[in-house]
Amino acid sequence: MLHFILTVILLSPLLGSMIAGLFGRQVGRKGAHTVTIIGVAISTVLSAYVFSLFVLNGHEAYNASLYTWMVSDGIRFEIGFMIDELSATMMLVVTFVSLMVHIYTIGYMDHDEDYDHHNPYYQRFFSYISLFTFSMLSLVMANNFLQLFFGWEAVGLVSYLLIGFYMKRESAIQANLKAFLVNRVGDFGFILGIAMVFVYFNTMDYKEFFAQLTTQRDVMIEIIPGVEWSMITLMLILLFIGAMGKSAQMPLHVWLPESMEGPTPISALIHAATMVTAGIFMVARLSPAFELSEAALSFVLIVGALTAFMMGLLGLIQNDIKRVVAYSTLSQLGYMTAALGASAYAAGMFHVLTHAFFKALLFLAAGSVIIAMHHKQDIRDMGGLKKYMPITYVAMLVGSLALIGFPGFSGFFSKDSILLSLNESERYGATFAYVLLMAGVFVTAFYSFRMFFLVFHGEESEYVRTHEMKESPWVVTLPLILLSIPAVLMGLPMIESMLDGTYFGSSVFISAQNDTMLAVYNNYYNGVLDMILHSFVTLPVILALSGVLLAWFMYIKQPNIPGKLKALCPRGFYVLDNAYGFDRLNEIVFVDGTRKLGQFFSKSVDNKLIDTGMVMNTCKTILHSATSLRETQTGYLYHYAFVMIFGLLAMLVWVLW
Predict the structure, then answer these.
(1) To bridge 255 with a disulfide, which of 39, 182, 612, 655 should be the other Cys (CB 3.0-4.6 Å)?
(2) Mean pLDDT of the chain
(3) Is residue 112's pLDDT more than 60?
C-alpha cells in the first residue's frame, strides 16, 4: 500500500503537467490550472499522510525499488524510494509550497501583461511548474545516485525553461542561459563525484554505498603523480561543487539573482522549495560520508559562511523588490551550508524547512505588490502601500520578521540553532564562520526592513498617488494567509526534537554522530518559552533589532542619509553595485576567454591545419600526382612493352632474392 501511495505522490504532478502541456489548447486555461492543481493537491495530501507516518508516528525507514532500468556488469541501475524523516519532511515542504504557488499563479498570470493571452502560454506555465514539482520529488525520494542525478538535472532543465518563460524579452533569455551554463559548471563536478562512487564503490544504491564507507575511508589516490589525496575527500568535494551550483554558493551564485527574470510564482518555487534546496538536501543525505572528511566539511563551512555574509551585503543596495528577496535567499542558503559544514545537519535542514515557508511568503507578497504596481518593481517608486494592501502588508511583515529571526517566529528557532551550533563547533574555520554569520544577522535585518519601510511606509511616490492601488484578488491573498501560519508557528513544536536529535530519528543522515547539536541542546536549551524570553538579551536578536531600527532611521526618519553615505563611499558602492566583480570576471574568463579560444582554434586549427593543411593540401597533392601520372600515359606501344618487360624482370629478381 505504501509503495502505491509513494508512486501516486511522485506521478500525480507529472500527469497534470503532461495534460496541461500536451493538450493545453484542448483543455483551455481553466482546464490547465485545474488538472495541475488537482495533481499537486493529491501529492500534498498524501505527503502529509507520509509525514505523519514517518515523522509523527516513527515508522521505520522505507527503502524499495520501483523498477530496474538496467543491469550492467552486475551493477543494478534502479528507480526507487528511500523514505524516512528527512525525505518525508522535504516531500511535504515541496508539495505544499508548490500547491500554494499553483493557486497564486491563477491570479498572478491573469494580471500579467508580459504574455500573449491568445497563445497557450498560461497552460505551458502550469505544465512547467507541475513538472518542476515532479522533478524535485524525484530527487528527494530517490534511493540511489542514478535517480538523484535524474532529478538534479530535471530541476535544472525546468528552471531554464521557466526563467526564460518570457521568451520575447532579451534579458530573460540571457538569464536562463546564464543559469543553465553556471549549473553545468557545478554539474561537471557533480557527475565526476558520482563517477567516483561508481568506480570505487561499485554501486549506485545509497544503502550499499553507506555500508562500504568504513572500508573505503583510507583509500588514497594520486591525481598528480607523487601527491596523494583521500579518495573520499576528493569525491565529496566534487559532489559539493554540484551543490554549489544548484544551491548558489560562491562563486557559482551568479545565476540566482538573474532568475528574477522569470514570473514571480516561479521565483518563489525556485528559491523556497525546489532547486536551491537540492544541494543542501544532497549534502544532508550523504552526511555519513561527509563525516569521514574533516577537509571536505571545512570547505563546506567556509564557502557557506562567505556566501551568507557577502551576498547579504549585496542586498543593501538593491532597488528591485524581487532582487532584494533573491539576495536574502543567497544569504540564507549560506547559513544552511555553514550548518552542514559544522556537522549541524539537523539545524541546517530545519532552516531549509522554515525558510521554505517564509521565503515563499516573501516572494508571493512581493508579487502581490508588483500586481498592484502594474508590474513596476522598483521600491523607490512605491511607498505608503500599507493602507491600500493590508493583507499583503501583514504577510510581508510576517515574512520579514521570520527572515531576520525575530523571537517566536519560525526563522528565529532555525537561525539561532545554526548560530549556537557554530559556537559549539571545534571544526577548522568555525570561529571565522560564526563571526561572519553573526554580522550577517544585522545585515539581513537592515536590508529586509529597508525594503519593507520603502514599500509600505514613508511618503507615497508620484506613481502611487496617480494610479489606482488596491489589494490583490483572493487567489493571490489566500496563499499569503496560508503561508503566514507556518512562517510564524513552524518552529514552536519542532525545536526541541530538532536539537535533541529525535526529530530525524532513524534517517540515514542522522546516523552521523551529531555531537554539535546535542551540545547545543544540553548547554543552551531549557524549553521553548525560556529560549524566546532569553533571546532578547542575546547578541543575534540585539543585532537584528538594531538593523531594523537603523533601517527605520535612515529611510523613514532621515531619508537623506543614504544619499550622503553613497557620496562619501563611492568605491564601496561601486564594488557592491558590480557584485564584487564576479559577473565581470566570468565575462573576462569564460565569455571572452572562450571566444578568444574559439578564435584561436578557428584560425590555427580550423583554417590552417584543417582547411589549408589537410583539405587544400590534399587536393593539391592529388592534383600534382594526377598530373605527373598523366604524363606517363604516352600512347606509344613500345613504351608499354618496355614497362611490362621491366616489371617482369623486377618480379623475377624479387622471387630469386
Answers:
(1) 182
(2) 84
(3) no
The x, y and z cell numbers of residue 130, run together, are 507541475
Pair 402, 448: CB distance under 8 Å? no
**Nearest 5°: CA angle at 451, between 450 and 456?**
105
DSSP secondary structure letters along 545-596: HHHHHHHHIIIII-TTHHHHHHHH-HHHHHHHHTGGGHHHHHIIIIIIHHHH
Sequence-ordered list of residues with C-beta below 8 angstroms from that of 415, at least 6 positions apart, any chain: 335, 351, 405, 441, 540
Place of cell 559549539: 424
Parallel, antiparallel or unpaired: strands 220-224 and 75-83: unpaired
DSSP 387: G
| 597: exposed, middle or buried (Cβ count in 10 Å: 0-12, 13-18, 19+) | exposed
How far apart CA 593 and CA 16 sit, in angstroms, is 43
- Which position has the grid cell 499563479? 105
- Half-sphere exposure of residue 173: CA atoms within 13 angstroms, side-chain side: 4
| Contact yes or no for 436/306 (Cβ under 8 A) | yes
Where is pLDDT greater, at 66 or 351?
351
Helix 321-341 and helix 264-272: axis angle, to 10°? 10
62-72/227-230 β-pairing? unpaired
- pLDDT tens digit sequence for 113-133: 455 554 567 888 888 989 989
Q: Which amino acid is at 85?
A: E
